[in-house]
Design goal:
Helix content is about 55%, strand content about 10%. By secondary structure, it is of the alpha+beta class.
Length: about 600
């Protein structure tokens, strides 16, 4: 399998170097030791390792998912090799501060690396993704001893990590969790409870597995304010820091998923024998705040993974469409003429163009969000944090929804072949379907956006985003080729702005309930507007950088970029007009439906 079959290096180069100008991040103090050459070397290394050691077992990991026997989980030998190569390349600690043994790369670069590994084999990539994210929570909020005992071995790939949030009867409503933590005389705690859907909760890749577990200390306040975070290792450590005695953490069973099958999905029991040792991370009752660092990073990575899976499906269906001969032009009535490749048919072009618009728009959106992470954490750009907070629900949800639509279209392009396991596109769809569910469903993201994020800090994040929109519109005015794109975006932006203005007044008037009834519809409308802006910005950048090129391939690439922008703004963005009518009228088709009527 060649590298180009699962993600486009050319597209990553455009987004990182041209659109986002990532080398500018080296002007920020934390990244001043790096340069553009370093960034490219890291990306190229990721492409090689992903191609050689992750993509090589994409289908095998789906066909031979992890198995368990007597509490022990067995994984593929190819997965173990993939873990070792990822670890040895230093990717687990790539964006960790140098003082903690990391390479201190920008998060944007590790996010781009993440897109490469997700496209190659998202299930195998989940193990190091989760480990790195969990380790960084310990680095940021743990004690020096906890960093040494747990974070350092995790970042070195000796230990792995998980986050254990969900309980069998408690989904996203974490304030209702029942897992208990009882203080022990030695300063540790005894954890008791059950967790479910814990990705990578049990496997045979590492010497130890470190679970970050949300639990409630006995006597703590009810709801989310009483939740604490605990480090719960599979094996307790001896005085030399090596795994020794088995902790009271038991595998209750493996869950069998529609996709993502190569990642073990577990039900875990903590404290069946009343002897599960946990160590408080940070301060009591602050667990959800700490965990949200990992969850927010995970939400961005969900968007990146969804974009990458959508992008791979696009590339595979594009390749198939170029090679598959079938049919003739509708005006060609000669049955003896040679059939054309299906890419010549207009409806196939439509499906490919939609995939390109969804996937490239999503990838640019998620990597833009990653630059906001870098600018916010560097401490020199407070506006970046406000923009990131506002856009996180969009970054998680739009790629999850439209990356999946892209995979659906990829199956359609392949026709009957796409519905068979002999091709990858059906697996890509199954793998991507999870992204609309985990780290907060579409509905949860929409309530977060419309109920909180849009209005917080007196709407400063929204004001900053609107200013970004207007800057891009003004920049596009310099290129006559972009006139229709600029005008179309500006026209529909007025409609969306009107809805937001109306909703602001309704919220202030105490009418939040009817505003929030259709929050999912608002999220889709708002997300389409944001991605349309990303496309206008991409078109302006592409025209500015490559409009004068005489290179034939470069000009074809530019034409394709502009056509995808045209598709999204002409075909997808106008849907906001209908959505706006429903929202402004507080349509109650859904809210007024009674349970008894179903």
């Amino acid at each position: 399998m060649t590298m180009s079959e699962f993600i486009s290096r050319r597209e990553l180069q455009f987004i990182l170097d041209d659109l986002l100008e990532v080398e500018q991040l080296t002007k920020l103090a934390p990244f001043s030791d790096h340069d553009g050459t370093t960034f490219n070397e890291v990306i190229d290394s990721a492409m090689r390792i992903a191609s050689d050691h992750f993509a090589n077992h994409y289908k095998l990991a789906d066909e031979q998912e992890p198995t368990h026997n007597d509490g022990q989980v067995t994984t593929l030998a190819a997965l173990k090799s993939a873990w070792q190569h990822y670890r040895d390349a230093g990717f687990l600690s790539a964006d960790v501060a140098a003082e903690h043994g990391g390479a201190q790369l920008p998060y944007t670069i590790t996010a781009a690396v993440g897109s490469i590994f997700a496209a190659a084999n998202v299930a195998s990539a989940a193990y190091p993704f989760l480990t790195s994210a969990a380790a960084k929570v310990i680095v940021n909020f743990g004690s020096d001893q906890q960093r040494q005992q747990f974070a350092e071995p995790m970042l070195a790939g000796q230990f792995s990590g998980t986050m254990a949030l969900t309980e069998p009867d408690v989904g996203s409503s974490l304030g209702d969790l029942t897992t208990k933590a009882t203080p022990h005389s030695d300063g540790s705690y005894r954890i008791k409870g059950n967790k479910i859907y814990i990705s990578a909760g049990e496997h045979d890749l590492t010497d130890n597995i470190v679970h970050l577990v949300l639990a409630r200390i006995e006597g703590a306040p009810a709801g989310t304010k009483g939740i604490s975070l605990f480090i719960v290792p599979k094996f307790l450590l001896d005085p030399q820091g090596q795994p020794s005695k088995r902790n009271d953490v038991q595998l209750a069973g493996l869950l069998h998923k529609m996709g993502y099958r190569g990642t073990s999905s577990t039900a875990l029991s903590f404290g069946e024998n009343d002897d599960c040792v946990g160590y408080l991370l940070g301060e009591p009752h602050q667990g959800l705040k700490y965990m949200f660092q990992m969850m927010n990073e995970a939400r961005i990575f969900v968007g990146i993974g969804a974009a990458a899976l959508g992008y791979r499906g696009y590339l595979e269906s594009l390749d198939y469409a170029k090679q598959r001969p079938q049919g003739r032009a509708p005006t060609n009535l000669d049955p003896t003429s040679t059939p054309v490749a299906i890419i010549e048919h207009c409806d196939v072009k439509r499906m490919l163009l939609a995939q390109k618009a969804y996937s490239e728009g999503s990838l640019a959106l998620t990597l833009y969000a990653a630059t906001l992470v870098d600018r916010a954490e560097a401490g020199e750009d407070p506006e970046a944090a406000q923009l990131l907070d506002l856009l996180t629900p969009v970054v998680k949800s739009f790629p999850s929804i439209y990356g999946l639509k892209s995979n659906d279209l990829a199956i359609q392009v392949l026709g009957g072949a796409g519905y068979t396991r002999e091709y990858n596109v059906e697996q890509l769809y199954r793998d991507n379907r999870l992204n609309r569910i985990h780290e907060g469903t579409d509905g949860i993201q929409s309530l977060d956006l419309l109920g909180r994020k849009l209005w917080q800090h007196r709407g400063q994040g929204l004001a900053l985003l609107m200013a970004q929109f207007q800057q891009t519109v003004a920049a596009a005015e310099h290129f006559p080729e972009l006139a229709s794109l600029r005008q179309g975006f500006a026209q529909h932006l007025l409609t969306v702005s009107g809805v937001i203005e109306q909703f602001a007044g309704a919220m202030q008037a105490g009418e939040a309930a009817k505003v929030l009834d259709n929050s999912a519809l608002f999220l889709d409308m708002f997300s389409k507007t944001v991605v349309a802006w990303i496309w206008l910005k991409s078109a302006e950048c592409a025209q500015r950088r490559y409009g004068g090129s005489e290179d034939r391939q470069q000009r074809q690439w530019l034409a394709g970029k502009l056509q995808a922008a045209k598709y999204f703004i002409d075909w997808e963005l106008p849907e906001v007009e209908h959505q706006a009518r429903l929202l402004r009228g507080y349509n109650d088709s859904c809210a007024a439906m009674q349970p008894e009527w179903f």
